[in-house]
Amino acid sequence: MKKRGISLVLALLLAFSLLPFSAMAATAPTAEDLKTPPVISNLEIHDDGGNYVWLEVTVQTPANVLNAIDYFENHELGYNQAGYIGQIDLQYSIDGGEWQETMISVAGRYYEDADETPRWNGIHETYYLDELHVNSEVKARARYNGADAEGNPRYSDWSNMLTLNEKVDFTAHDWAQAELAEAAALGLIPDSLKGADLTKPITRAEFAAVSVRVYESLSGTKAEPVAVNPFTDTKDAEVLKAYNVGVTNGISATTFEPNTLLNREQAATMLSRVYKKVALDGWTLETDGSFNEQFKALFTAPAAFADDASISGWAKDSVYFMAANGIINGVGDNKFAPKATTPAEQAAGYAQATREAALLIATRMVKNLG
Length: 370
Hints:
This protein has 370 residues and is α+β, with helices and mostly antiparallel strands. The protein is built from 13 helices and eight strands.
């Protein structure tokens, strides 16, 4: 009798071992599982050279939804108990138009992996969209589409929404509009400048925020504020991030002067420090002097500006680095206009960096050096 019991146990173990793991692992989904939306990322516009244009979006399906799909596929009563998930719908709006909807993942249809199972994770494409062009503003979100236990349509919640080529009305000069749109698309406009008059001069705190965005874009690293704030005149998180990264320091050991306006040579120097932090292993603001030769080896300096004598010694390498890479150009007559040097120039705001100019050079830096 004992031997027969052992044999039965072994037989059952063997039978279970032959079942697909997913059939054993999936658990009955809950109502909350069926409401869980996908997560979408990396929305892009693609074309084949002018004839057809389509959207491409990366979809990630949460584990609890994969479990629900697994359960429906491997339990005969799954559909009768709860319904099923059959596809992913993408809803999109082009250039501010009405929401439209298309199918991007369906069991047993076009979007399958090599083993003929539905692809619930990865890159999906829409069908060709005649109204789409490469510079279109596109908003997109996704949801799961299925049926309930009675066969009636059932949908998950909508996913996060992505926006591509967002059209923003900037208070800025006409010549700056196109590059400001690029700055917005690249995520280089900090919250402090969104909706602001970008023709106005930029402050040290505002430029610190722009510098942080450039650092994060070039390095792929999220900046964190310094743990202990050394300044008594600001608690601005972006200033503390810039200080922690090493792109700026204070006017003194305890003051930052966040509202002081920035001039062009100071802007060149701060952004050069961003690049040094990214490109020169071991560079810090404190050790900057020991990296002079390594920094100069990164570029070929152009011919001297006509007002080279007005450029501060500590800023010259940065100014010519920016000029060499087409990031900060001269102002005409082969002048750089690094700073105001007379009371009259100071009164006129000569050489002050504006908000729009700061965002434009940030955009060029990411595009040219990224």
